[in-house]
Specification:
Helix content is 44%, strand content 15%. By secondary structure, the protein is α/β, with parallel strands linked by helices. The chain folds into two domains: 4-116, no CATH class; 139-430, 3-Layer(aba) Sandwich (Rossmann fold), CATH 3.40.50. It has a seven-stranded mixed beta sheet. A four-stranded mixed beta sheet has the order 2-1-3-4.
Length: 434
């Protein structure tokens, strides 16, 4: 077992037919690889058993969450190298007739098995969602999925998100702080919706109440916010009371499918539609359409994946499904637009904010790293590690154009087909009271 790092490096380079771009430090104290490169620290050989049991992303994620694998040096650089070795090559492997039969793969697996120690691998970390059965996106299953992600402690999210408590892409203009960029995003949404005093706004997936507070305080709207997270709702109500806005905002723990008190003048859905799922997306669009008055506007802010040959596939990667967003699904922008229009909406504007989300995620990672000990105490070491990996990897995905995020402004047409919107494009940018 001596010099495990050199043996791992040799196995990897034989498989890849190229030098390993990261340095390895193994559990026996040995190191191997290019000097100055980020260091992949393998603290225990059971991490190799996880990788053998679940090759690729999920096995590596389990080892990361359990603290058996870590990175020293530039996290983004290391993840960029690992993504190229694991994810990109994994995608190419599906085109191979018998990838598992390749002699190099067999030799690599035998070498890992020799280093991995006693079989079988340990159980997955406690932070992993248990295997789910039954139909997707029932009310009960969605509630459990939302609870897994959002009910991990408001104190934890406050450390990561900062004072704005906005858990979606900020809108960066000429630098500024994260809080300023989040305020500008909320204001952009309000302006696109054309909010004015007395308008009824439904905020679907209202989170910790930031959008509802901004719309009520700055634009005089009457806001109903719905969420499936009891922790979010409690925090939002506390903030609303502190702002003196309880007469303008109601926060409900309620499924969007159960909202029945329309019509509303406007609907905001910010970072919520990713949870809806392909089997429910048409229903989601039709429900929101029915809740709007004629001429009412919908602002749908949603992450999108890039199109693939199989356009019926709404998918999310194995790590995110197991540890971050259970049952979450990403669709291409074109599919989302088509479904909204099939429900009766007219799409009036699309704005892409991909680079904005990468900047936002990097700020969240910096917040988490700055407050690491507090974050661990607020939740668990494994949960904090999940969020650090998820947010850093997501930042790279946005930067490399693997995923995007878009704001779609859609309108329920007036009787006779009119939109009620001004002729000039994007005249909503004047601000409150314009």
């Amino acid at each position: 077992m001596a010099d495990a790092a050199s043996r791992l490096t040799a196995l990897a380079e034989e498989l890849l037919s190229e030098p390993l771009p990261v340095r390895i430090r193994a559990w026996d104290g040995s190191e191997s690889g290019p000097p100055g490169a980020p260091v992949l620290v393998i603290r225990h050989r059971r991490a190799l058993r996880r990788l053998l049991w679940k090759p690729g992303e999920l096995g590596l994620a389990r080892a990361w969450v359990a603290g058996e694998v870590d990175i020293e040096g530039d996290l983004y650089e290391a993840l960029g190298h690992l993504a190229g070795l694991l994810w990109d090559r994994g995608a190419d492997a599906k085109d191979s007739v018998h990838p598992v039969r390749d002699p190099e793969v067999r030799a690599f697996a035998r070498g890992l098995l020799d280093l991995a120690g006693p079989w079988p691998p340990p159980a997955p970390p406690a932070e992993e969602v248990r295997r789910r059965t039954g139909p997707l996106h029932t009310r009960r299953r969605d509630k459990k999925a939302i609870s897994h992600h959002y009910d991990v402690g408001n104190d934890f999210y406050a450390l990561v998100l900062g004072p704005s408590m906005v858990y979606s892409c900020a809108y960066w203009q000429d630098g500024g702080t994260l809080e300023e960029a989040q305020r500008d995003k909320l204001d952009l949404v309000c302006r696109k919706l054309g909010l004015k005093k007395g308008d009824r706004l439904l905020d679907v997936g209202c989170g910790w109440g930031s959008m509802a507070i901004h719309a009520a305080r700055e634009y005089g709207a009457q806001v109903t916010g719905v969420t499936l997270s009891r922790e979010q709702a409690a925090h939002a109500r506390k903030r609303i009371a502190e702002e003196g806005l309880t007469d303008r905002i109601e926060i409900r723990v309620q499924d969007y499918r159960d909202v029945g008190d329309g019509p509303y003048d406007a609907i905001s859905s910010i970072g919520m539609a990713e949870h809806v799922g392909s089997v429910r997306y048409r229903e989601y669009a039709e429900d929101l359409y029915a809740l709007l008055k004629p001429g009412g506007r919908l602002l749908n802010h949603q992450i999108a994946r890039r199109p693939e040959r199989d356009e019926d596939a709404y998918r999310i990667d194995a790590f995110i499904d197991a540890y971050v967003f259970p049952d979450g699904e990403l669709a291409p922008l074109a599919r989302t637009l088509a479904t909204l229009e099939e429900a009766g909406f007219e799409a009036r504007d699309v704005e892409t904010l991909r680079e904005h989300y990468a900047l936002t995620l990097r700020r969240w990672v910096a917040n988490l790293e700055r407050h690491w000990e507090q974050a661990v105490r607020a939740t668990s070491p494994g949960r904090a590690r999940v969020w650090r990996l998820y947010m850093a990897a997501s930042a790279l995905s946005f930067e490399h154009n693997r995923i995007g995020v878009n704001q779609i402004l859609a309108v329920r047409p007036l009787d006779g087909g009119g939109s009620g919107l001004p002729l000039r494009a994007r005249t909503w940018t004047e601000g409150p009271g314009a």
